[in-house]
Input
Amino acid sequence: MFGIHDLALFIVSGLLLNIMPGPDTLLIMARSATQGWRAGVAASLGIGTGTLVHVLAAALGLSALLATSAAAFNVVKWVGAAYIVWCGIGMLRARLKQSDDVPLPPPAPLPLRRIYAQGFLTNILNPKVALFFLAFVPQFIDADAPNKPLAFIVLGLIFDFNGMLWCHGLALFTAFASARLKVKPLVALWLNRVTGSLFLVLGARLALADRH
Output
């Protein structure tokens, strides 16, 4: 159907690729552990929206521009790296306030809409995601498919749906584990800082990445 072949292999490969850790995974786990499952789900939905934009852009040929134009790739790369580093710095700057007779509160929660935006921007500003779709998805489309862009979009939607299953499952599991372990505010603070440090490393790696 649609000129798609080896669909089962595509689904399994996509799930395995979604499980690989990266900025998206770290963001979901950090938000779920510190603010609960709703925050993790908000980050997941933002990531899913970003993936959908990548799918549509690749189907329309925009991702090919990133693959062939060094200038376009570098612009997206540096903007994405700067945003990831900015998120990391924000996590590192998290603070706890304490008065003499009041227990330590948890780090100040972010609004869900801001967490959604974080997930979206973290995903959409990573040019490696665009190039991944351009390299991975066409392998499962017949050379003589009647409508290649439509086949690309169908496979992209399947990949995004499976990715959302994984992301939401990760958000719920992390939030449940955090609640069961009764993560204390100080632990949540250091979790933010560790995640922020990892974001700085990932931002640096993205800044140094090339198109290959």
In short: Confidence is low (pLDDT under 50) at residues 98-104. The chain has one domain: 7-16+23-93+105-208.
